[in-house]
Amino acid sequence: xxxxxxxxxxxxxxxxxxxxxxxxxxxxxxxxxxxxxxxxxxxxxxxxxxxxxxxxxxxxxxxxxxxxxxxxxxxxxxxxxxxxxxxxxxxxxxxxxxxxxxxxxxxxxxxxxxxxxxxxxxxxxxxxxxxxxxxxxxxxxxxxxxxxxxxxxxxxxxxxxxxxxxxxxxxxxxxxxxxxxxxxxxxxxxxxxxxxxxxxxxxxxxxxxxxxxxxxxxxxxxxxxxxxxxxxxxxxxxxxxxxxxxxxxxxxxxxxxxxxxxxxxxxxxxxxxxxxxxxxxxxxx
Length: 285
Ligand SMILES: Nc1ncnc2c1ncn2[C@@H]1O[C@H](COP(=O)(O)OP(=O)(O)O)[C@@H](O)[C@H]1O
Ligand SMILES: [Mg+2]
Description:
Bound molecules: adenosine-5'-diphosphate, magnesium ion
Structural class: alpha/beta
Strand content: 15-25%
């Protein structure tokens, strides 16, 4: 038997993501989670149990109002579940932490500040200003905005602003990114490139990524695994793996169409949104 050195064990080789890096992503476990905002309104979420591995990309897919954002807020420690618990890296989540960062549809930048100043805010708020000089150029390069550092945020396009928000989130080296439909206000082309880049960055850094979406294509392009939610009350109806290589995820391949079609059928059945998809559903691929 050949014994591996501990360093090799900590740095698994990945054929798809280039050079091996240590896994730094959060491990998430959700146990018996249920939630009601007001007793009289009944349960928004019921008996939710799942686990997310370090460095895994998981999509929460479901119709509007099924409780996706509520669940994401609970993973982030922003809302406390009525029952059950969220455990991250072995600790029950009681409060928000800079180790897991939420990103929303609106990038929420300060328009009068430069791109670099906006990207530095996460470090400032966590009192790590001494890291700004080295870390900000690194994260701006990661999101392809290295040459925009001194531009005012308001001069940027919507997609570029969302990239600045991403850089700001990445600067404090979080273990997990939580995205709540962050690309839905962008045009299709910009959305695609962000979907690809965010997945690539998460994989390169070993980050755990949870993305809330009602878009089947987005789930297929980005996620290793999709949890499909049913409504009223929100429950996990399906837990399914997206078996595609990174090349196949850019669309156009038979494998992509097959996975898209399969997930669309699962989603339609769970959400009760009409018949299984037809050829016309693939014009966007
Ligand atoms: N702060 C809140 N107070 C009361 N009800 C809420 C609150 N936030 C969400 N809800 C309700 O909880 C349900 C799930 O909402 P949400 O988690 O936002 O769903 P989704 O993100 O899937 O659209 C909806 O019926 C919504 O009206
Ligand atoms: Mg929502």
